[in-house]
Design a protein that fits this description.
By secondary structure, this protein is α/β, with parallel strands linked by helices. The protein has one domain: Vaccinia Virus protein VP39 (Rossmann fold). Helices cover about 30% and strands about 25% of the residues. About 10% of the residues have low confidence.
């Protein structure tokens, strides 16, 4: 699993100069702080924010209500906590600037392993355990693109 510093580096590489980010499910804002140390401006939303991060109390399914627009919207290890994860890509599209990026990083449950988290069994091929979320996301991304 990638740590906050590694995720921040990945995001910096994807962002246009001066780009803004939204962290959906920001929790304590660790990744936002790592991004801020690299000069990236952003904010976060979480139904249960904690810590010192610039996080607003908001559910992932409500992000289209934000007035701000972003160059990159990401969720890190939170999609499995969303009430309606299938709505997330549509919500994100509403607040992304043209050409913006939606980045989803999460752990998934593996039905073949009795519902254990995919990263609980390092010997299990990752592709076998991620099909469920990938199918949901790909289906929604196809609908957003058409």
């Amino acid at each position: 699993m990638l740590g906050d510093e590694e995720v921040a580096e990945l995001i910096v590489d994807l962002l246009p100069p001066g780009g803004r980010v939204l962290d959906v499910g920001c929790g304590g804002g660790h990744t936002l702080r790592a991004l801020a140390r690299r000069g990236v401006e952003g904010m976060g939303v979480d139904p249960h924010p904690y810590g010192r991060a610039p996080c607003r109390h908001l559910h992932a399914e409500e992000i289209s209500t934000l007035e701000e627009r972003f160059d990159l919207v990401y969720t890190l290890h939170a999609l499995h906590e969303f009430d309606a994860p299938e709505r997330f890509p549509r919500e994100a599209k509403q607040i992304l600037r043209p050409g913006g990026i939606l980045l989803v990083m999460d752990r998934v449950r593996c039905p073949a392993a009795g519902g254990a988290w995919a990263d609980d069994d390092p010997g299990r091929p990752a592709a076998d355990s991620q099909r469920g979320y990938e199918a949901v996301l790909k289906d929604n991304i196809r609908r957003l693109s058409s």
